[in-house]
Amino acid sequence: FKNPTMIRPNLQVRMPSFTMISDNDWNTIIKYFQLKDGQTNPYENPHLIAKNSTAYRAGEVIQDMGACNNCHFYGDQKPKQAALSWGPNLALTKERLRPEWLVDWFRDPQMIMPGTKMPAPYIPTEEPLASVRETWGNDVAKLHSDPEKLLEALRDYNWGISGPIDVSEIVKAHLESEGYGFVIEDDDDWGDDDW
Fold first, then answer.
1. Among 8, 9, 69, 185, which is most exposed with the fewest C-beta within 10 angstroms?
2. DSSP annotation of 46
3. Among residues 119, 155, 153, which one has the least CA distance to residue 138?
4. How far, in Å, CA of 25 to CA of 32, rounded?
5. How many CB atoms lie within 10 A of CB 58?
6. How far is CA 122 from the centre of its chain?
7. CB burial of residue 2 (10 Å; 0-12, 13-18, 19+)
């Protein structure tokens, strides 16, 4: 709240800073939201991942096959598509989100945020096992029969993404040099002056 960083680079609006509020007042506000959400414990157990696990490796394959880097930052690695499509920096995942919420998000982003550009990731549970093994690899094939485990694998891979979390300067520099990526057609052959 005191010094918000950019989370959704594709939006041209920003969260304001609230520097005039004391830490004690912020703690009161935070406690209010925790109670409103039914969270009586001030701290949560951290979500731990094993980067050498089958699930983590399966999540990495699902992420790669889904081309999540088209729209999302991975730390300071810029997305491949135009800024208009950019989503949050995935290095922020473990800082901002709850593990169980992330699985719900992957299951159906439109249910949580109607109109979001985020598609539900493709999970190959309807494909024959031999095809999954050939195309997606052994780690995904081992979890093939359980879509929930594959969503959790994707969550765990996202949880392990590291790197700088504040991409504000990268986004500002990109927008100054390339803009948001809107298609603006200045040249047309219609002769607007003749209308």
1. 185
2. P
3. 153
4. 11
5. 26
6. 15
7. exposed
Match 């982003």 to its residue by tokens.
109
**How confident is the model at residue 147, as a pLDDT?**
94
Per-residue confidence (pLDDT) for residue 23, from 0 to 100: 78
Tell me the per-residue pLDDT of 77-124, one tens digit each, with 9 for 90 and over: 999 998 888 889 999 999 889 999 999 999 999 999 998 889 999 999
Give me the numbers of helices (H) and strands (E) for the chain, helices first please: 9, 0
Rounded Cα distance between 183 and 61, Å, is: 33
Which CA distances in Å does 67 have to 21, 84, 122, 145? 41, 16, 11, 23
* Neighbour-count burial of 48, counting CB atoms closer than 10 A to its CB (0-12 exposed, 13-18 middle, 19+ buried): exposed
What radius of gyration do the chain's Cα atoms show? 21
CB 53 within 8 Å of CB 33: no
Alpha helices for the chain (secondary structure H): 23-36, 54-65, 93-96, 99-107, 109-112, 129-136, 138-143, 147-159, 168-178
- Tokens describing residue 155: 């969550």
Partners of 77 in beta bridges? 74
Min mean pLDDT across 23-32, 50-59, 145-154 is at 23-32
Query: Could you tell me the two tokens for 29?
Result: 């506000």
